Amino acid sequence: MRFLAAGLLLCVLLVGCSENAAGSSESVETTSSTAPDDTLHSPSAPPVPVEVPVGEVGTMFESTTGLVRAAPTPFESWSQISPNTIAIHFVTGTPECYGAEVEVTESDTEVVVALRTGTLPEAADKVCIMVAVYGTMQMTLQSPLGDRAIVNAA
């Protein structure tokens, strides 16, 4: 009987906290002096990657074709290594089981990077641990980056 009462009390507390948190976020939004940017909160819009210093790198990945269950993966940040070389930084699984594939499309105003991550073909039948790894992949551009924007295609 005590466990039932404790469980009921826990449920009531959780519901109360959830409603309080929702109320708090609404009051923050209504008191904000800036207009909300719908593109930042749209579930279909990829995140806008930010530039980070060159020294902030993760586990290096090479672009790998033939990934199993590959899915578009947004990258969080990027670094300029040289005028024609950039590195993107993303979260994926361990390099023993997971890989990444990249496709770059360049225009005069932007560099669009389409990153896909998935299971390596040789690990398709393995049991892989689910550990998040901060990954980095370098790519050479056809022309110097200049003032072009780096854009997530995912």
Automatic annotation (TrEMBL):
It comes from the Bacteria. Keywords: Signal. Residues 24-34 have a biased composition (Low complexity). The keyword Signal applies. Residues 23-49 are annotated as: Disordered. Residues 1-21 form the signal peptide. This is Large secreted protein. It comes from Rhodococcus sovatensis.
